[in-house]
Automatic annotation (TrEMBL):
<protein>
    <submittedName>
        <fullName>Trehalose-6-phosphate synthase</fullName>
    </submittedName>
</protein>
<comment type="similarity">
    <text>Belongs to the glycosyltransferase 20 family.</text>
</comment>
<dbReference type="GO" id="GO:0005992">
    <property type="term" value="P:trehalose biosynthetic process"/>
</dbReference>
<dbReference type="InterPro" id="IPR001830">
    <property type="entry name" value="Glyco_trans_20"/>
</dbReference>
<dbReference type="Pfam" id="PF00982">
    <property type="entry name" value="Glyco_transf_20"/>
</dbReference>
<dbReference type="GO" id="GO:0003825">
    <property type="term" value="F:alpha,alpha-trehalose-phosphate synthase (UDP-forming) activity"/>
</dbReference>
Amino acid sequence: MSETVQDKVDFLVIANRLPVDRKIDDDGNVSWKSSPGGLVTALEPVMQRKGGAWIGWHGAPDEVVEPFHHDGYDIHPVPLSAQEVEEYYEGFSNATLWPLYHDCIVEPVFHREWWDAFQKVNKRFAEQAARQASEGATVWVQDYQLNLVPKYLRQMRPDLRIGFFLHIPFPPIELYSRLPWREELVEGLLGADLVGFQTPGAAANFQRLAKRRPGVTAARGRAHTPDGRTVVIRDFPISIDSRGFHELATSEKVKAEAIKLREDLGNPGTIIFGVDRLDYTKGLRQRIRAVGELFKEGKLDPHEVVFLQLATPSRERVEEYKILRDDINLLVGQINSKVGTIANRALVYRNESVPREVLAAMYQVADLMLVTPVRDGMNLVAKEYIACRSNDDSALVLSEFAGAARELKQAYMVNPYDIDGMKATIMKALTDSPKLKARKMRAMRRQVFDKTIDVWADSFLTELEGH
Ligand code: ADP
Ligand code: G6P
């Protein structure tokens, strides 16, 4: 494979994020950091295997970065001005579409200037892809931030095969209809040959909307457009590099890290673990409240049990994320001031992102994993936990509102809004017989090792290339 950046490629991924973010500290020093979130975790191994190019934003405003070669594929950074970061990324993507697509857990904000910026930036991504794609190339557009790219790109380059995958939920029509630009966004996706979703329900929601467009007929996962094209609409539940995670978690380095971690936590009998981006969709308020109450009521003994929660700061300038950060800090403080001792904190809360080896060590030491989003497209953390565990005596508590619940059926299911129900399920997961837990873990392990990220990418691309 070539080590220099190619002029044109046959396979392109376009996502708002690149796999690495450019960071500049106060002294002007520049470094590259892994980007947060499930999209990058899932797509990195796909690109390492397939090669081609990844087009995306490098995470810093007002900066033009030259293309470079990375891990077997080319990277083409797309610049965003500070105002575009505010209006396209923080605004329309993350204060309009993100809450709207997550069942309006918080109120979506609608601003016409944000919509203008969204169109402008989507055009820029499409133009970049049109420049980089060779004749007849396959272009795979990712996620809600680039909703309009399929349509723009088809106008520029009708020769391309265009796929789109939505990593987050797609809401029911009743909620979606609030959007002042709902027609344009549906048209945007209908520019693709294949539109993929995490669940059949999400695909069905989109099909219902597509059918409402003038001149479009849609049934059984196919929409026929007035310009004579067929758009396939289907679910493709995303996954992880299960073997890669497993090998990492069972490596000597990570095992040593796990021993050290357990010691640092005071060698407790039981470790409960949660790891998320600090996002209001993740059900952190409910989860921390439930565990906090179990400590306060004496059902969990802080001398025996530690709850380790990592929450990576995310979208820090968006109002609802600031509110969430303050709420969680307060809640954690309240719990730790009432339970545990100076030496034994019941709740260890860290606002940080950790390297993958450290995360794997955390999965290794976690006897109980809490994944309790109030809405989530898939949730890869749940799958990572299963892949990293070699010990059967563990348990996964999983929200029924995560896409992963459709596949990890043997998890201890919870409705995160039902705090008492969640408390009871946590206690059950801690006290069930090792035999029952082992059976559940084995079944989930089969699922996670059968349906890997390669299976996901191959099934999407086979469908797209056979179009
Ligand atoms: P989302 O995409 O909404 O963030 P997912 O659970 O699908 O949710 O994916 C999150 C990804 O980010 C996972 O790969 C997870 O390991 C990673 N991640 C989340 N929090 C952290 C953290 N504090 N440190 C390191 N990685 C993290
Ligand atoms: C989710 C979204 C991704 C996004 C990630 C991190 O996984 O589906 O598109 O990249 O969160 O969010 P951020 O806003 O930091 O890119």
